[in-house]
Amino acid sequence: MESGDSKHPFYEPFFSYPIFQHVENQFESKPSFEEEQGSGLEASLVVPQPMEALHMNPIPPFLSKTFDLVSDSSLDGLISWSPFGHSFVVWDPVEFARTILPMTFKHNNFSSFVRQLNTYGFRKIDADTWEFANEGFIRGQKHLLKTIQRRKSYSLSLQIDETGRSEMEGEIERLKKDRNVMMMEVADLQEQQYGAFQHMELVKERLHKAEVKQKQMVSFMGKIFQNPEFMP
Prior knowledge:
The protein has helices at 18-29, 33-45, 52-55, 61-71, 93-105, 110-119, 156-159, 162-226; strands spanning 79-81, 87-90, 123-124, 130-133. The protein has 232 residues and is mainly alpha-helical. It has a 4-stranded antiparallel beta sheet with strand order 1-2-4-3, covered by helices on one side. The chain is elongated and about 125 Å long.
């Protein structure tokens, strides 16, 4: 065997062995330090998308169901949008309560439905019809329902401030005084009435005595005319 034979295994390049080629490929496929830093910087600059759904006010089921009812054209004979779409009208409250409320809200009390509307700030805008409006209840804009807030209920005593309380107490005192004055006037009238009654009874008695005396005089005069000698 010739010493210069390049095909002898001991004369093949050292790094041509498979194990070293594998290690070399690993180093070639690994990104450089600069590339790693760049990719990390880009990753750190990625702004996460805000989770808007977690911050949005959920639409109350009552508002959503009512909006769907008003928008259902098959129910226009019972409930529908007004011509401009800024309010809605319940055209037949009796039938609406009988057929629609039980299916949608599990009750048939129209008054309860109206109270629920009031709770969410709806106002009745027509005295002759059941027409209701709210700034967040607009035809074709269901997303505005999330702006409608349920009113918080407080007792009347917590709502009255000190000024209002003082005014109310003053008004109550004034009413009490007026009541006392009127009671005194009633007592005076009753007393006057009693005095007038007593006076009337006295006059009636005097009138009766006068009538008796008049009859006696007439009788006496009649006897005189009938018997002149009766005179002394």
